[in-house]
Specification:
It is built from 12 helices and 9 strands. By secondary structure, the protein is α+β, with helices and mostly antiparallel strands. The chain folds into 3 domains: 108 residues, Butyryl-Coa Dehydrogenase, subunit A, domain 1 (Orthogonal Bundle); 101 residues, Butyryl-CoA Dehydrogenase, subunit A, domain 2; 148 residues, Butyryl-CoA Dehydrogenase, subunit A, domain 3 (Up-down Bundle), CATH 1.20.140. Strands 1, 2, 3, 4, 5, 6 and 7 form a 7-stranded mixed β-sheet that branches. Helix 8 runs antiparallel to helix 9, helix 8 packs antiparallel against helix 11 and helix 9 packs antiparallel against helix 10. It is globular and about 80 Å long. It binds flavin-adenine dinucleotide (FAD). Flavin-adenine dinucleotide binds next to helix 5, strand 1, strand 3, helix 11 and helix 12.
Length: 388
């Protein structure tokens, strides 16, 4: 794994190294050859689902799916690899595995878990997760407008959702709404073909173009009580899940930065100007060192956070937020330098940096914007809530 200046990866156990090598090989075989074309066309590469699912089934099929996982490191390293090779695929996986399956595992009944999780581990069934709305993003804890009304037969769901990843191809969408009378936050397992569910793909993205995000309209969707997640009633529960997502996204940002560094490093050794490889110029070397410094700081922070999690058994919300903030800021900077030192070729997909550069923009905004994570850390260290 490059760059690994402080030997974080070379000191991983041989079994973890083997695991990550197998995962990388799967991505190299099934994602790398087709991803630029799909990204360019704004289409999800369906052919990846089968080998990806087979890999997950082989690695995790014998274990009961539990979220958050007892040993999160393999999943974090998967996020890193996905970021390095294709961030769209990282989002597809995160929404399916961490958010949709994670919600069913944390908040679902035994029947719901039995119905959905085994087929989702192998990706025979795909999950989506819908919290954000057209008029509620960062303030989702307070501002959701989607409503769930109790009826004689169960629930009636009305409202709109925006960005929901994978929903255009999903078998199940976890949809969050406020209870009409009482104001509890409730989660529902909605199947897209149900009457009253309207799904429209968002087409004009400049980031994460190879994964599908949608706009969902819900018009009096009739649900049975068995479709409600029974073990969740407020945003604090969902916040626990998002905390884990924030750490995973920090690893994705690190992966993107490493992918950009690798492509840019290889480029500057081959590209000659003024009669010699541009890697020999002092100003280019400074930029490479700046990139390496940011990446090494990110690696050190994330491996240390992993040790904290192993020792304490948990990570505090502000600790996860600081990682997300720090890694996204640094990865964005690395993307910018990497694109710059490739000159004009830095904006061409075929040179390996442009796609990661563009995808990093979405990573910067989701799982808590820079401002939200700043305010979470600020509240933690001062005791004062500065959100409103
Ligand atoms: C590619 C992609 C995939 C996504 N996938 C999903 C998904 O699968 N499911 C899902 O539910 N959501 C998803 N999202 C939504 C994502 O979580 C939101 O975009 C994110 O939470 C930010 O919300 P927003 O876009 O509405 O921005 P807003 O909340 O409107 O924020 C706009 C700006 O205002 C700032 N701001 C807001 N409040 C304050 C404040 N109090 N102080 C200072 N600044 C403030 C923000 O930091 C930001 O800079 C996805 C988004 C993207 C881009």
């Amino acid at each position: 794994m490059q760059p690994d200046f402080y030997l974080h990866f070379s000191t991983l156990s041989p079994s973890v190294q083997h695991f990550i090598h197998r995962f990388r090989s799967m991505l190299q075989e099934h994602v790398v050859p087709i991803i630029d074309d799909h990204w360019n066309r704004g289409v999800f590469p369906q052919s990846v689902v089968e080998p990806f699912g087979a890999f997950l089934q082989e690695e995790f099929g014998d274990e009961e799916y539990v979220f958050p996982p007892k040993n999160p490191l393999p999943f974090r390293l998967m996020k890193l690899e996905l970021g390095r090779i294709d961030p769209s695929m990282a989002s597809f996986f995160a929404v399916h595995w961490g958010l949709a399956m994670g919600s069913i595992s944390m908040f679902g009944s035994n029947e719901q878990k039995e119905k959905w999780l085994p087929d989702m581990v192998s990706m025979h069934k795909i999950g989506s997760w819908a919290l954000t709305e057209p008029f509620s993003g960062s303030d989702a804890a307070f501002g959701l407008q989607a409503r769930a009304e109790k009826t004689e037969y169960g629930w009636s769901l009305t409202g709109e959702k925006k960005w929901s990843g994978n929903a255009s191809m999903a078998d199940v969408i976890v949809i969050w709404a406020k209870e009409t009378n009482g104001g509890r936050l409730l989660g529902f397992l909605v199947e897209p073909q149900m009457e009253g569910v309207h799904i429209e793909k968002i087409h004009d993205k400049i980031s994460k173009r190879a994964m599908e995000n949608v706009h969902i309209r819900l018009e009096n969707v009739q649900l049975k009580e068995e479709q409600r997640l029974p073990n969740v009633e407020n945003f604090k529960h969902v916040g626990q899940q998002l905390l884990s997502g924030r750490i995973a996204v920090s690893w994705e940002a690190l992966g993107i930065a490493m992918g950009v560094y690798e492509a840019a490093f290889s480029y500057v050794q081959k590209r000659t100007q003024f009669g010699k490889p541009i890697s020999g110029f002092q100003l280019i070397q400074e930029k490479l060192v700046n990139m390496l410094e940011e990446i090494t700081l990110m690696q050190s922070m994330l491996f240390q956070l992993n040790r904290v999690e192993e020792q304490q058994g948990f990570v505090r919300s502000a600790q996860a937020s600081l990682a997300k903030r720090a890694c996204c800021r640094r990865a964005r900077k690395v993307c910018s330098i990497g694109r710059d030192i490739m000159g004009g070729n830095g904006i061409l997909l075929s040179y390996g940096v442009a796609r990661l550069f563009s995808d990093m923009e979405a990573v910067f905004s989701y799982e808590g914007t820079d401002e939200m994570n700043t305010l979470i850390v600020g509240r933690s260290i001062t005791g004062n809530n500065a959100f409103v």
